[in-house]
Write a structure and sequence with these properties.
Elements lengths: L1 E7 L3 E4 L3 H12 L4 E4 L14 E2 L17 E4 L2 E5 L5 E5 L3 E3 L1 H14 L3 E3 L2 E7 L4 E6 L2 E6 L3 E3 L6 H6 L8 E9 L6 E5 L10 E5 L4 E8 L3 H13 L7 E9 L9 E2 L2 E3 L15 H17 L3 H24 L3 H11 L2 H9 L5 H11 L12
Parallel strand pairs: 1-12, 2-3, 2-13, 3-9, 6-15, 13-20
Antiparallel strand pairs: 4-8, 5-8, 6-7, 10-11, 11-12, 14-17, 14-18, 15-16, 16-17, 19-20
Length: 379
């Protein structure tokens, strides 16, 4: 195995060129920083682990009119939430289904156009926080880069997470999903609650068209067992014959104690556990954190302080909602769906984006005080 000793780099290395890594590179390159994206694979966005559903809150971050039209796979109009007792409520929605691979490629191209450098097939090996030395493996060559900053955007298995948070144990869900052919209402996103199919999380059906959907779920254990059970119930015994592709991966659980800045190491996105604990969505929180990191570099204000200001309060509220839900029985889940079907709560849920969980819950408690019943599960 060859060994290549590099000189000190003026470039800020970013480990991982997924959505959040590429977006961070784009923001920093726009500010005039020299940035290098290191991608573990030989292609951007592959393998794909994400469903690609985002709220319209993405419009507050990116001008979607600048996206290629084919990158928006579908626009949803409603969410159907199905309770364990099979009752349901339908909530108006303006969610967007993205081509996840194409979206990552788009952001990587924006980063490169802004001046960032992109290196494929570079696997993170080590970062010596004392010597300020990054070690990477490019095919059979070991490379070292002298740098006083490194940004980790390498997902839920980030090795740099342990450098910064040696005493925090990550507790992710295991997600599995498929792209499958069938007949679907292309405007309706389905979410299934309760212990029958996805204890501790939920199962989903996200239509790409009338003839195709992404169907999956996440649990902490026996994920394949529950997935097979759900697929048979939702799609029939012959569902495997209609599968176009499989996707899967870990979904991080947010931890309020996480530290994202230490001795020149910065964590962002899934690597920082910056994911909504209610839905597993990490694109928008991660992009908000990337904006916080760019602002931190520009202003000198602590990144840990800024990302908590930009998205920390809502991530904490999502975590509290998840805790209350996980401690609820199936009967309580069914009652929750019943409450959400009332006129005032439904109007609030439809008009306040899921990204703003803190504001939504405060308004819900006022509009329908019976939601406070679930606060007992936080004790």
């Amino acid at each position: 195995m060859a060994n290549d000793k590099s000189d000190k780099s003026d470039s800020i290395p970013i480990i991982g060129s997924g959505t959040i890594g590429s977006y961070t590179a784009y923001l920093l390159a726009k500010q005039g920083y020299i940035v290098t994206l290191y991608e573990d694979h030989d292609k951007i966005g592959i393998p794909c682990h994400c469903t690609g559903i985002v709220t319209s809150g993405l419009l507050n971050i990116l001008d979607l009119s600048k996206l290629k039209p084919e990158l928006i796979v579908n626009r949803l109009k409603r969410v159907k939430v199905v309770a364990p007792n099979h009752d349901s409520t339908i909530i108006k929605s303006s969610d967007i289904v993205l081509d996840r691979v194409g979206f990552d490629v788009f952001l990587a191209e924006k980063a490169v156009d802004a001046g960032a450098k992109l290196e494929y097939n570079h696997k993170f090996i080590n970062f010596d926080m004392q010597k300020k030395q990054l070690t990477l493996k490019h095919k059979d060559v070991i490379k070292t880069v002298a740098t006083d900053k490194v940004i980790a955007a390498d997902g839920p298995n980030s090795q740099l997470f342990n450098y910064v948070n040696p005493n925090i144990k990550r507790e992710p869900w295991v997600g599995v999903q498929v792209v499958i052919k069938g007949e679907f209402d292309r405007e309706t996103y389905e979410a299934y609650l309760g212990s029958e199919f996805a204890p501790g999380f939920f199962a989903w059906v996200v239509p790409e068209s009338e003839n195709s959907a992404i169907i999956g779920l996440a649990t902490r254990e026996k994920t394949n067992f529950y997935f097979e059970k759900f697929m048979k119930q939702r799609c029939g015994e012959d569902w495997k014959a209609r599968v176009q592709s499989y996707r899967g991966g870990l979904i991080p659980l947010y931890n309020r104690k996480v530290v994202c800045e230490k001795q020149g190491v910065f964590l962002v996105g899934d690597a920082a556990l910056q994911v909504k604990a209610t839905t597993g969505g990490g694109i928008i929180p991660g992009m908000k954190a990337a904006n916080a990191l760019a602002d931190s570099f520009k202003t000198g204000i602590s990144y840990d302080k800024l990302w908590r200001k930009y998205t920390g309060k809502d991530l904490w509220m999502h975590l509290m909602i998840r805790k209350a839900m996980n401690n609820s029985s199936d009967e309580e889940y069914s009652w929750l769906v019943e409450l959400a079907n009332k006129q005032k709560p439904k109007a609030l849920i439809e008009n306040i984006e899921r990204e703003h969980a803190f504001r939504l819950m405060m308004r819900l408690f006022i509009a329908e005080p019976r939601f406070l019943y679930f606060a007992k599960h936080l004790l």
